[in-house]
Write a structure and sequence with these properties.
79 residues, mainly beta, SH3 type barrels, 5-stranded antiparallel sheet, 10% helix, globular
Length: 79
């Protein structure tokens, strides 16, 4: 049986995640929280676009801009 997205995000709380946005940018950081619209709060956020990386620290990413979330399993097992 499939696990609903909120449950998957709960498992990823306080873990490093990588987000792929609609415009092709990638944002990596530690997931601090999320809401019912899947807006995501990150700490230690770094944006990568066109070979350039920018550091933002804390950031909120609008859920409608996210097309994929990569959250490695705790302990580095699986993806």
């Amino acid at each position: 049986m499939a696990v609903p997205p909120p449950k998957l995000l709960e498992r990823a709380l306080q873990q490093p995640v990588v987000l792929l946005l609609k415009d092709g940018r990638t944002i990596a950081g530690r997931l601090l929280g999320f809401d019912e619209h899947m807006n995501l709060a990150l700490d230690g956020a770094e944006e990568t676009a066109g070979g350039t990386t920018r550091r933002f620290g804390k950031m909120v990413v609008r859920g409608s801009n996210v097309i994929a979330i990569h959250a490695p399993a705790p302990g580095g097992k699986g993806a």
